[in-house]
Specification:
Layout lengths: L1 H27 L12 H8 L6 H9 L8 H12 L2 H5 L3 H4 L7 H22 L8 H12 L6 E7 L5 E9 L9 H11 L3 E7 L9 H15 L4 E8 L5 E3 L7
Parallel strand pairs: 3-4
Antiparallel strand pairs: 1-2, 1-3, 4-5
Helix pairs in contact: 3-4, 7-8, 9-10
């Protein structure tokens, strides 16, 4: 009797699997407007929230339409595979972006506009001052600015007396362990902008945000230099990939 029950469960699972497979095949041949409303990206976002959508579904909302023989979701999935990841697509150059199927200058301009609005939204949050007590919020802002550069970028966030953002300046491009970062240039910038406090930041193109010995050493040198002009170094944030970051202040290496 137990064997019969197991066989019954197995057959039921097979039928469910076949049903799901047939449903996927069916959706491949259907326009998104004919999908169940809980499976349409736009409706799904409104009903369940953006966090519940896949990368392809989010991209499909941006694309709005597919191409001949492919829905917007299928096209989005193909593009993510073509570029290697959603992050790579979002940060591609105009030339690289326009090579994608269904993409062109108009879509590229729309994307850059959306990303710029996101940057300004984070910047507005930082201007409220309280954000500087939260490295994660600063890291989110920095990811949009330097997180996807294929080269190492060293940036300085200049703050006023209330620790509100005055300006983000990308100061150096290169590799920190080749001594491309000069404390005197940071001091010159701080004096020029009349900043009262500073947050240092740079990205690791490798994706691993773990601070290197060179990162820690240059941070110490800049901190000592800033103390000579009574300017406080609040943090040095290292940006990696996929939202990862490291805060030297949190690691107690400042």
């Amino acid at each position: 009797m137990r064997k019969n029950k197991i066989k019954s469960i197995y057959k039921q699972q097979q039928k469910t699997g076949e049903k799901n497979h047939k449903l996927k095949l069916k959706y491949k041949t259907m326009a998104i407007t004919d999908w169940h409303e809980n499976d349409r990206p736009r409706e799904k976002l409104l009903k369940f929230g953006a966090d519940n959508l896949t990368d392809a579904e989010l991209l499909a909302i941006f694309l709005r339409t597919g191409i001949a023989g492919k829905s917007a979701v299928q096209l989005a999935q193909d593009l993510i595979e073509q570029f290697g990841s959603l992050n790579n697509l979002l940060n591609a150059s105009e030339e690289q972006f326009c090579r994608g199927k269904g993409l062109g200058p108009a879509k590229y301009a729309s994307l850059r506009g959306i990303l710029e609005m996101a940057k300004r939204n984070f910047e507005s949050g930082l201007n409220k001052g309280i954000a500087f007590a939260n490295p994660a919020q600063i890291a989110n802002y920095l990811h949009l600015h330097i997180g996807h550069s294929y080269r190492e970028v060293f940036a300085v966030l200049l703050l006023d007396q209330k620790h509100q953002l005055l300006e983000l300046v990308e100061l150096f491009t290169g590799t920190i362990n080749k001594a491309s970062v000069h404390p005197r240039e940071v001091l010159k910038l701080v004096v020029e902008k009349n900043a009262s406090a500073v947050v240092l930041a740079h990205n690791h193109p490798s994706g691993d945000p773990t601070p290197s010995k060179a990162d820690i050493n240059i941070t110490s040198k800049i901190k000592q230099a800033l103390e000579l002009i009574d300017v406080r170094l609040l943090d040095h944030i290292v940006i990696g990939d996929k939202g990862r970051f490291a805060s030297l202040a949190q690691l107690e290496k400042l």
